[in-house]
Amino acid sequence: MSEEVKHFTATGMIRNEKGDFLLHKHQKLGIWLPPGGHVEPNEEPQDTVVREVLEETGLECKVVSCAYPFKTRISHSSHVQSLPMPLAILKEFITDKKIGGHWHIDMVYLCELTMPNKQPYDEFRWVPFEELTKLNIPDDVVELASRVNECYQD
Question: Name one GO molecular function term (predicted).
């Protein structure tokens, strides 16, 4: 029996004040995706998403914990720390011509920009929620965007 190859990744779902989502057309995959990337050795996933957003978009962000409505935070001690809760944890199959098919264990975080008026690098654009389905975009990204919108409803 062959063993599945898995990589840990972190993705940032970022929505602006108008309700648009920050996306780019992924060069290798040819689909529209939010910023994100591989978790480096000894890196925590919430730090990965902040680093990847900055590297890919030029924008600084912070992670918003999605623990509501359940109490998920464990009290800190000298041996235990609570990390921010992701919006979702997904197992995604990736077809890659160089390394072959493999899985991403993707921790998807809700992120907010620290300087919302700064513009991203040219390869990224703000896409209104209503236009997401007009793009070559995975269904799960549209579903995640819908969940993000729910977080911002009054």
Answer: hydrolase activity
